[in-house]
Amino acid sequence: MYQSQAHIFAFWESRAFYDSFMARSHDRLATTQSGTFKDAQVKLFEYRFDVKTGFEPRFTDTDLIRVALCRVHEERVEHFTLMQEKVWNPAMAGSPGMIRGMFAEAPEQEFLILSMWRSAAEHGKYRTERVERLALRAQTEADIAALSGDIVDLEPSWTV
Known about the structure:
- The structure is a single chain.
- The protein has helices at residues 15-24, 26-32, 77-93, 120-138, 140-143; strands spanning 46-51, 64-72, 98-106, 110-117, 144-153.
- It is 36% helix and 26% strand.
- Helix 3 runs antiparallel to helix 4 (120-138).
- The chain is built from five helices and five strands.
- With 160 residues, the protein is an alpha+beta fold.
- The longest helix is centred in the C-terminal third of the chain and has 19 residues, at 120-138.
């Protein structure tokens, strides 16, 4: 049996709209999807700042998303956030093929870095050329307690 993983990103205009959906429509919608997936994990992140400029939840001009989930040591949160803004963001923004992205925060020192890329080849150039050097400069290893992530190929028929 073939199994795969899906990432679903939902962007809310405000926390009030999200809370309203959860209180009214969520359970009815979830019931209609019963049995279509297993092992769902849901995390709610709050937008902090753009990666590059002008983040908007539009997926028609991108072929690939890189999503990184980071749990940061409590005493290193301020440093991690500063390094994202001063080291990682300029590097990604200056990479050909990087379209836009966002940096967001959840409780318990968890962060989401979502970046949109024109193609896997363009993202591959960024990774090969820069990640190790940037990680040393930003002292990423000292900041991060746990890191997971994925490269997400977009399914245009899922975009609403």
